[in-house]
Amino acid sequence: MTENSPAALAAPYDALLLCSFGGPNGPDDVLPFLRNVTVGKNIPEDRLVEVGEHYGHFGGKSPINEQNLDLLQALQAELGRRGIELPVVWGNRNWHPYTVDTLRDAVAFGAKRVLTIVTSAYASYSGSRQYREHLAAAVAELGDAAPEIDIVRPFFNDPGFVMANADAIAEAAAQLDGGLAGAHIVYVTHSIPDTMQDASAETGPGYREQHEDVLATINAFLTGDVAPTFESSLAYCSRSGDPRTPWLEPDVNDHLEELAKQGVRKVVIAPIGFISDHMEVAFDLDTEALETAEEHGIQAVRADTVGVRDKFVAGLVDLIVERAARERGEEATPVTVGEFPALPDVAPPGSCRMRHGEVTGIPVLAGAED
Ligand SMILES: CC1=C(CCC(=O)O)c2cc3nc(cc4[nH]c(cc5[nH]c(cc1n2)c(C)c5CCC(=O)O)c(CCC(=O)O)c4C)C(CCC(=O)O)=C3C
Ligand SMILES: [Fe+2]
Q: Where are the domains of the chain?
């Protein structure tokens, strides 16, 4: 492969790691998986039982693993279409295949520099720093055999991600009586504790503000030339933890109830906080929130998550090409939509801590430890 051939566009990287959360594949996996997720976290036992039941409704199997395999294939296909040589592998934080095992295999097949895409679009402790801690732990475990790892910047304001969401919302709205005109778009994301939100805002736009930015871009796009009159708001799902600890609100169910009181009769539920239909979407939105809407006389449709939509996948491949170029010392201007600049490749000191003001000293990759 010559220096300027498409095959070399991902150099110096020789593998791409899709790094995700993981989820159970059957009933026997559910409890050990939940224990992995909640180790060291202050999650009450009854919340764990409740979440275990959510998985139980789906045969103890989360859809997340198959969705990650679909994304892996879609990324590999798009790289192939562009003639880029870069094998894609998949590893998780909380369930098999674990990242450390995937990396060990990748090294055995000759990988030395691995670029990582984390499957959370927004930067916060849960979606960003916790993955950087996890990757640092995997590298420590592999010792001398560890590859060198870089991480693609959080992609909430990537045009591919945002426009794929906008398309999905437009398609969902078309299913409502009379379409988007007169509808209310309830954008939904995962709730996080207020202290995690505050910590996320220490060195850049906070978690909530990142979502508000995406929401504004999508609203402007949907308004377009036709300018239908619609309202929108941001709500949260899947809060856990100690009930006395404040988390981001309103909860999507409370919010739908409130909207019904205000006379709202049709809603698009737009899960912009999630890239695929994993358990939070399948249970908290498709089971609970749609039921809440119906109970309150609201016609509601749930927009698709971006999944393997072409624009989203192409956007991720653009991010890979952009990052690789920068690593080769070439100029590569990040492309974004909305009011915020691209987040940096390497997280600044103090970014995305678990709690505002807390320094744990836990080693991280692609960022400072404080
Ligand atoms: C911001 C965020 C994302 C990013 C959005 C994204 O990446 O899409 C995300 C993703 C995910 N969270 C997931 C599952 C769980 N999260 C939990 C707990 C928690 N999540 C939190 C936040 C987030 N979580 C927080 C602050 C907690 C409290 C404990 C802690 O501080 O960590 C618990 C414990 C039980 C409970 O408390 O609910 C479970 C089982 C799954 C897999 C789903 C599947 O199996 O299909 C995925 C993709
Ligand atoms: Fe979670």
A: 6-155+308-327, 159-302
